[in-house]
Amino acid sequence: MSILLIIQHLQIGGAQTFLIRLANALAKKGYQVYLWDIEKSRQNPAIVKNIHPAVQVVGEAYKPSIFTRLFCNALGSVSYKLGWNRYQKHRLYDFFHRRFFRSQLRKFIHTHPVEVINSHMAKADYFVSTVASQTSVPWIISTHGCYDRFGEVQASSVTLEIAARYLPESSYIIMVADKNAAALQKLSIPPTHYTKLWCGFDANIDESASVSFQRKSGSFYFGIVSRAMPEKGWEEAILATQTLVEKGYAAELILVGDGLFADSLRQKYTQPFIHFAGATSTPIGWIQQFDIGLLPSRFAGESCPNSIIEYLFCQKPVITIDIGEIKDMLLYHNEYAGFVLPLKEGTIPQGELTKCMEKYLTNRELLEQHRSLARNAFQKFDMNLYLEKYVSIIKKVSNK
């Protein structure tokens, strides 16, 4: 079977991490896998190096002409000054980019034995839709919460009105969380056209690249792997760790991720027990340094976080928030592999977060119990289970 996976860009992020793991797992099973990065000029080399040699990375980078750049900049500037759509310049760029992509994809399908197309992220879905209706190749959309906030966030070329035109044209839609269905229901897409499938993780994967970090003897390490943004609870975790240290505990915090928010926190909190690790394309090595994984997130787009799966894979108990699918992700035989806290009026409960962290510092038996639960809770994310369901969907839409 020949599968073409298409994504908006290969930068560090949950959708990108999962897509590469899926591509690698399919290739190792003997499938012909093509991976198309639409915004190839934005590729992160650290991400690309994780792609299995058997996966063929395809597609040409779009290089707009000088005329195109000048035209888009000029019209975008005029639109902004007149108070029109401030993102007009980006949408103009996307218009020309789509024309280029459409031509390239048509040629590729004509010259390669593509049996199914699977797009990831809304912009990729939109770009593929311009070709999919003109070909007999089945087209599966994998959502990553991209459509959950339509109507609130309109910074891209994909609007609710545009999505309403192309989503029903897909052969099938794979969601990662039940809440993703709300956006599809608003567009009157029938339940028979979509299903939920949690992200998979290859238990035999080797992403444990060594990290240059030395644990201190006698210290207890909490850690977060996520994008560095206020909604992901980084500052709340820092404040909780600070409180524990003030109470006399040998607590330390490792923050894995990067961005402007991380830079501001790095300047604000300079205590030696706060460790800013920066961005990584191989998080497992860092998570293995943790005793406890944290994800105190209030991010509205949270669905099925890779970091939760990675914590469980490394047998790390988790302290997190009841948002998206997280609560069920930690469940094993009616017990949780950690603590799941409720949001309080949209905010992270600082006091409860600190108390839960303290429980692991004082109760070794609880720590070991939750480690065992983490190992068992991970089993439902085994990539073999995902591939079995994923391939069955492909066969269904391909009538095989």
Helix percent band: 40-55%
Order of H and E elements: EHEHEHHEHEHEHEEHEHEHEHEHEEEHHH
Distance between the termini: 11 Å
Outline, from the CA principal axes?
globular
Enumerate how many helices there are, as a single number: 15
The major beta sheet can be summarized as: 7 strands, parallel
The top level CATH class name of the largest domain? Alpha Beta
What oligomeric arrangement do these chains adopt? single chain
Secondary structure: number of strands: 15
So, the CATH homologous superfamily of the largest domain? Glycogen Phosphorylase B
Please tell me the CATH architecture of the largest domain by its name.
Answer: 3-Layer(aba) Sandwich
Radius of gyration: 22 Å
Percent of residues in β-strands: 15-25%
- Biggest sheet strand order reads 3-2-1-4-5-6-7
Low-confidence stretches: none
Mean pLDDT: 90
Q: Structural class from helices and strands?
A: alpha/beta
- The total tally of domains equals 2
Named CATH topology of the largest domain: Rossmann fold
Structural account:
Helices cover 41% and strands 16% of the residues. It has 15 helices and 15 strands.
Task: Spell out the blueprint of helices and strands.
Elements (H helix, E strand, L loop, with lengths): L1 E6 L6 H15 L3 E6 L7 H4 L7 E3 L7 H16 L6 H24 L4 E5 L1 H11 L6 E4 L17 H7 L5 E4 L5 H6 L7 E3 L23 E6 L8 H13 L4 E6 L3 H9 L5 E5 L5 H4 L4 E4 L10 H8 L4 E4 L4 H4 L1 E2 L2 E2 L1 E4 L8 H13 L1 H15 L4 H16 L2
Parallel strand pairs: 1-2, 1-4, 2-3, 4-5, 5-6, 6-7, 8-9, 8-11, 9-10, 11-12, 12-15
Antiparallel strand pairs: 13-14
